[in-house]
Amino acid sequence: MGVARSTGSVHQSAFSAYDSLYNESSARVFSMKVLRASHIYDWLNVMAAGCELPGTAVQELDEVGFVVVSGPVAPAKLSPLAAAYNAAVLAAHPDDVRVGRTTTRVHDFVNRGQDFDDLYVYQPILEACCRIIGGPFHLSTMLARAVNPGAPAQELHADYWGKTGWWPMVGFIFMVDEFRCENGATRFVPGSHWWPHGPGDVIPDTAADYEGHVPACGPAGSVVIYNGSVWHGHGANQTSQSRRSIQGAYIRRDDKQAASQAARISPDTLGRIGPLSKYLLGV
Ligand SMILES: O=C(O)CCC(=O)C(=O)O
Question: What is the torsional sign of CA 272, 42, 230, 22?
Fold first, then answer.
């Protein structure tokens, strides 16, 4: 499984296996299948038939609840993406900005430029959704989140907690900056997505270190894929720089999106995105 289960160990698992599997020709075959899909179950079959998520990553998602893989943005495009991120954050309407105690969030990164278009149609994430959600799904939200300089650790929590039923969610965190222990890499509690209780039920101080938690570290451009029921939260940012990320969540297609993508979609976005993006947004 390749993950050390002790506080302070670092998780950077599936890179080499993933790098050798993802290549342009399989991406081309996938695009051709996408063009032929029309019904929601066609889409599901196309996405589920992909083979961009290595077996080791599938196993980690199942057993540990999260995995770090390399992302869809070419190394040469990472710095322009980071500049586009800053520009988009500055240009955002104040109604879309939430300055919290530890993080600054900016909503609607689906409509903030083409630099971000590839993030929510990334095949390994979609394959994880097919496995974890197990039926038709859509993108609920995609936003920017920066952990503020000097911020303390976030409380451990599960994003999607269904005590009365199974309402799965898959999240991703795209690292705009390198994630390190010092700058607040997201910490996860391995295996907690299988537990019958949430952190608040059993831990007096959910912001404190939890035995066995693992920081998800990786170079800029990496992606954390996680089961929405796994306990997690950002670490303390002990640096003087923001730790920037773009985060998305997928939920069952019959569950309401956190942000109505159809209501928000801009003509620019609609004009440039492809059929798979439109399907995932529901536009
Ligand atoms: O930004 C992070 O590292 C984690 C954010 C998080 O836990 C959340 O959005 O639920």
Answer: negative
The answer to whether residues 66 and 193 touch, using CB atoms and an 8 Å cutoff, is: no
**Which atom of ligand 1 lies at the shortest distance from residue 186's CA?**
3
Return d(Cα 253, Cα 259) in angstroms, integer. 13
- Give domain limits for the chain: 1-49, 54-281
49 CA → ligand 1 middle, Å:
29
Single pTM value for the model:
0.88
Per-residue exposure over 187-217, b if at least 16 CB sit within 10 Å of its own CB, e if not: bbbbbbbebeebbeeebeebeeebeebbbbb
The number of the ligand 1 atom at minimal distance from the alpha carbon of 233 is 7
**Cα torsion for 128, 198, 96, 114, to the nearest 10°?**
-10
Residue 21: strand, helix, or coil: helix
Pocket, ligand 1, Cβ cutoff 6 A: 145, 147, 154, 159, 186, 232-234, 245, 247
Kindly report the average pLDDT of the chain as a whole number: 88
Which ligand 1 atom is at minimum distance from the Cα of 145? 1
pLDDT in tens, 62-108: 999 999 999 999 999 999 999 999 999 999 999 999 999 999 999 99
Query: Domain 54-281 maps to which CATH number in 2.30.30.240, 3.20.20.370, 3.10.20.80, 2.60.120.620?
Result: 2.60.120.620
CA-nearest of 188, 99, 96 to 151 is 99
Report d(CA 116, CA 13) in Å as an integer. 24
